[in-house]
Write a structure and sequence with these properties.
404 residues, alpha/beta, Globin-like, Elongation Factor Tu (Ef-tu), domain 3, Rossmann fold, 3 domains, six-stranded antiparallel sheet, six-stranded parallel sheet, 13 helices, 12 strands
Length: 404
């Protein structure tokens, strides 16, 4: 643990809160512009999050503001620190990368705030940055050490062979990945993700996160990926460019979103669209490791053409005996009939969950598109579900969710 921040530093950082609230996104925009002048630092980032929406810019601005607001109460930031540490494991961020961010951040603060950013203010922010950086680095050391002491663990990028490619629906394809070196693979926690590095003809050195969609087995991973027509190219490359026998580079499983090893109460798995992927990993694990766990799997998708792994889910539920499955189709085809191909027309609602699941007694695990999560993370909380029972995964800058 680094030395505590001085009272003067805390006071100076908190004094910048109004300026950060007004100019935070301008500061982070300037920071990224400086960082990306260095090609090897630029290559560390997932640039799908740097697109026209500026999601990562706004997310980082919100995180910096939250840090300033809570600099005398850092316990409030523990979940965010854990999330960042796992992301750094996935993207293989190392201690030597931190000074680049420090220099870019302080220069950006000076550039945007001008004379307001006095030498004293910049010194305080430098001290505050390195205080947080040391906390993150220490946590990342622990995570890497834990990974390396488990069978099949590794650090950095490891080569995996695409052993199979399975069409799950009109839009989702699964990829079975086995290590090229023939060794075992780390048994992930159900719900965690892998980070990939690959290149396409029009976009070199892409980095993407994809949830693992199988139970831990020590031999292979499965990811199930939706082809995004308007995305940044990662999913299209996997669907159209990657074939059986190809090699992909992967970092170890990471993520703080996962099924408890010893569930203490009923579980509700709630997903939208391709958000089903970590739920399948959890379902398979529950089916084999938790034979008495009351489980409710509620999934929303457009119709039978987009609905992946339906038969597999039903087989898992039937074999377990205490897994209940409910599927909602928001835009059913003419041959989709409620009660036959799916359970309900329309969208999942908080009212439906209140009437059909043990909403006040269960742990909720959520994964889906941003509007889906925005609705249910907040909606469940307003319905009286304690925040520590609402667990969710979101890929990309979860700025609005963190704020909620």
């Amino acid at each position: 643990m680094p030395q505590p921040l001085s009272a003067n530093t805390i006071a100076l950082v908190k004094a910048t809160v109004p300026a950060l609230a007004q100019h935070g996104s301008a500061i982070t925009t300037a920071m990224y512009a400086r960082l990306f002048q260095d090609d090897h630092i630029r290559a560390l980032f997932n640039h799908a999050n740097q697109g026209e929406s500026g999601a990562q810019v706004h997310a980082l601005a919100g995180a910096i503001l939250a840090y300033a607001q809570n600099i005398d109460n850092l316990g409030a930031l523990t979940p965010v620190v854990e999330r960042i540490a796992h992301k750094h494991i996935g993207y293989h961020i190392l201690p030597e990368h931190y000074p680049f961010v420090a220099n870019a951040l302080l220069a950006a603060i000076k550039e945007v705030l001008g004379d307001v950013a006095s030498d004293e203010i910049l010194a305080a922010w430098g001290e505050a940055y390195w205080f947080l950086a040391e906390i993150l680095k220490a946590r990342e050391v622990v995570l890497r050490d834990e990974i390396m002491h488990l069978e099949g663990g590794w650090t950095g990028w490891r080569e995996f062979t695409v052993a199979d490619k399975i069409r799950e629906s009109d839009v989702i394809t699964s990829f079975i990945l086995r290590p090229k070196d023939g060794g075992p693979v780390l048994r992930h926690k159900p719900g965690q993700y892998l980070t990939f590095r690959f290149s396409s003809a029009d976009q070199p050195d892409m980095k993407r996160n994809y949830s693992i969609s199988c139970a831990p087995n020590g031999e292979y991973y499965r990811i199930s990926v939706k082809r995004e027509e308007n995305g940044q190219g990662g999913s299209r490359h996997l669907h159209d460019g990657v074939q059986i026998g190809d090699i992909l580079e992967v970092t170890p499983p990471a993520g703080e979103f996962f099924l408890s090893e010893r569930p203490q109460r009923p579980v509700v798995l709630l997903s939208g669209g391709v958000g089903l992927t970590p739920m399948i990993s959890m379902m398979e694990t529950i089916a084999t490791d938790h034979p008495t766990l009351k489980t409710y799997y509620v999934h929303g998708t457009m119709n039978s053409a987009t609905h992946a792994m339906d038969d597999h889910v039903k087989d898992l539920a039937k074999g377990h005996g205490d897994i209940r499955v409910a599927t909602f189709y928001s835009a059913p085809h003419d041959n989709d009939v409620a009660g036959e191909t799916h359970d309900e027309d329309g969208f999942v609602t908080i009212d439906w969950l209140s009437q059909n699941t043990p909403i006040h007694d269960a742990d909720f695990y959520l994964c889906g598109p941003k509007p889906f999560l925005r609705a249910f993370v907040g909606g469940l909380s307003l319905a009286g579900v304690p925040n520590d029972r609402i667990h969710y995964e979101f890929f990309g800058p979860a700025d609005e969710l963190m704020a909620a």
